[in-house]
Structure formats: C-alpha cells, structure tokens
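Long-time lurker, first post. I've been practising inverse folding by hand and with some scripts of my own, and I keep getting stuck on stretches where the structure tokens seem ambiguous. Below is the full token string for one chain I'm working on. Before anyone asks, I'm not after the true native sequence, just a reasonable design that respects the backbone. If someone could post their per-position residues I'd love to compare against what I wrote down in my notebook.
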C-alpha cells in the first residue's frame, strides 16, 4: 500500500488561487487546489466565485466550457444554471429547478492583488479575515514583480523554512544567518522579527527581516537594510504533497522607475535563487515527527504547534518518519545520467 507522505491532512484557511487579473469579468476557468477540481469565475458585476467544478446533474466540469450569464454560471452539457450560492436556478428543458442540485461554494476575498479562497474541510465559515497591506496603497512602494513555483512538498513542511535560521549558511551560502529576536504566536497569526547582517563592499549593513503570517496561506515579509522590500507571499496546497507558492515583490520607491525595477528584479532573483536551493531539500527530505534539534536551532516545535491549529481533521500518528516517494527521474547524480544517456543512445 502506498503510504501517505505526511501525517497532515489539508489545512484550513485563506489560500490564493491566483491573481485578480487572472479572472476577467464574465469568464469561468478550471482550477485545482485542496485536492479538488474547482471552477473559478467572475460574474458580469465583477464579483468573484469559486465552486466545486462538477455539475450535480451529470458531472460536467463547469470550468471547461461553462459560461457566465449575468451573475450565474451555465453548464456546457445540458444548460443548467447555478447562482453565486451554488443553487440551481434554471433547467432550460424543465419547468422546475432541482433543489437538491447544489454546488459547494467557497468564501472568496480579494486582498493585495490575490484572489483568496477560504478552504475548510467541514465547510465551516471563515474564522479570520486577511488584512490588506496598507503600505501598498501609500504610493511609497513600486511593483509588484511576480514569481511563482510549484514544489513536490507539503505546505507546512515548506513553511518550516522560516523557523530554520541555521540552513541559510549551508543551503544558501550566506555569510551570516538571520538572528531571530522575537517570535510571537497570536491566534492565526505568527510574527517573527529577525536581524540579519548583510556584508557589502562598504562594510556590514544591519538589516531586518520581519515576517507576519496571516494563517497558513499568506505571509507578509518586510526586508530592510540595503533596500526596503515588501514581499507578499502565498502558499496553496494543490494536494497534500504539492504546493504552489506565489511571490509579489514591492520595493520602496527609489526615485525612478528604472532603478525600482532593476533593484526589484535583482531582489526577486535572489529570493528565487534561494527558493530553488531549498526545493530539492523539501522534495527529498523526510518529515520527522521528533527531529533531533540543537539548542540553538530555530523555533521548530513552536512553529509546528502553531500550525497544528489549522487542522480540523486528525493528524496521523502511525509513524515517526514520513519519507517521500522514490522519484527515479529526480535522482540527479552523474552515474544515473550516464546510464540514461547510454540507454537512449545520447552522447555526452
Ligand atoms: S451535466 Fe451540467 S447540465 Fe447536465
Ligand atoms: Fe531557505
């Protein structure tokens, strides 16, 4: 039997399913998150909706050919219509609607340029709201520069990276590691304040990295020191073993657009470089229920305890070690490559 990769079920919370402009008014599209097929559509009045994808009549995918009509969505298969609550409002070849035909509908909010969906396995209503970052509306920041990644690792596992100060030196080759000064867990929020010294040709610059996690799916990271950068990130489970991360970088206005975009781009590339360095670690690591920690390690267990509040379903306790599957195509060492090229007749 294929064992599950992590002990964790799907967390609940607000998660990004894309950017505001990914969903023009009057259009519907298919998407997949939380291990579910979804239809995301914006009605003609500009309101955004996310619902389960399969029409309760005979199972057509409403994101593949479904059409928006006013504030309703029409199924491509037999023309049934559903409203923003997921209620069947019309069967074109019948005088009566089917009251039992109901689409599961997710609460939606648009914040900081993202379309956020509230996912809860038991369909409980949102237990917090995600704040709009006010600094983005003052005109002091320019951006965003956007990057995005899909990783074969669970969303909690990747979140642990923030608590891991020691890995910076080894994975990212930084000369100094962030020094966590303050770590505060406040309900669905976590606040981490850290200091980092950045070596520059003109000497060491004192910098800060301050992170606010607004639940498991959205974080705001403020970098200061060399340049002031604001990073809005989202992490969304595609399934329990696959995560999509979006980064929006904003730099504090440096006077002209060209400087802003080159500084922003350099910063985004550095964060992306670090993300690419973390990826093979995340993809190939085991999740250890009881890691052997050094007393100077970051606050891993506090992070895990905080994160556990986002699980409505039981966390499995059948093992202490959760290894990844074996991915032959991800074995990236020289002998494996030589074997593959010999086998397929390539020359290297
Ligand atoms: S499957 Fe949607 S109307 Fe028949
Ligand atoms: Fe990292």
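-- Answer (accepted) --
I ran through it position by position. Result:
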């Amino acid at each position: 039997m294929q064992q599950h990769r992590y002990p964790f079920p799907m967390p609940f919370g607000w998660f990004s399913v894309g950017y505001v402009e990914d969903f023009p008014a009057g259009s519907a599209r298919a998407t997949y998150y939380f291990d579910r097929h979804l239809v995301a559509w914006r009605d003609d009045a500009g309101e955004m909706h996310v619902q389960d994808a399969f029409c309760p009549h005979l199972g057509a995918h409403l994101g593949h050919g479904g059409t928006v009509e006013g504030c309703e969505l029409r199924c491509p298969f037999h023309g049934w219509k559903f409203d923003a609550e997921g209620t069947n409002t019309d069967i074109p070849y019948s005088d009566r609607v089917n009251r039992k035909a109901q689409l599961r509908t997710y609460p939606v909010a648009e914040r900081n340029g993202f379309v956020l969906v509230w996912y809860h396995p038991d369909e409980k209503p949102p237990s917090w709201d995600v704040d709009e970052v006010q600094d983005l509306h003052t005109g002091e920041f320019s951006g965003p520069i956007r990057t995005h990644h899909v990783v074969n690792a669970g969303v909690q596992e990747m979140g642990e990276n923030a608590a891991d100060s020691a890995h910076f030196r080894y994975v990212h080759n930084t000369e100094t590691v962030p020094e966590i000064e303050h770590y505060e867990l406040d309900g669905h929020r976590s606040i981490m304040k850290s200091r980092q010294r950045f070596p520059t040709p003109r000497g060491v610059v004192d910098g800060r990295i301050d992170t606010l996690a607004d639940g498991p799916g959205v974080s705001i990271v403020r970098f200061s020191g060399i340049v002031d950068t604001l990073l809005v990130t989202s992490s969304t489970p595609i399934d329990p073993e696959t995560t999509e991360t979006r980064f929006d970088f904003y730099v504090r206005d440096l006077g002209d657009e060209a400087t802003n975009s080159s500084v922003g781009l350099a910063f985004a590339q550095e964060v992306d470089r670090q993300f690419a360095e973390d990826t093979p670690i995340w993809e190939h690591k085991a999740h250890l229920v009881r890691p052997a920690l050094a007393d100077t390690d970051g606050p891993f267990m506090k992070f895990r305890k905080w994160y556990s509040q986002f699980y409505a379903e039981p966390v499995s306790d059948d093992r202490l070690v959760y290894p990844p599957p074996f991915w032959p195509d991800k074995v990236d060492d020289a002998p494996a490559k030589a074997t593959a090229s010999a086998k397929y007749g390539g020359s290297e």
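A couple of notes from the structure itself: The chain has a mean pLDDT of 92. The chain has two domains: 13-119, 134-305. Happy to go over any region you disagree with.
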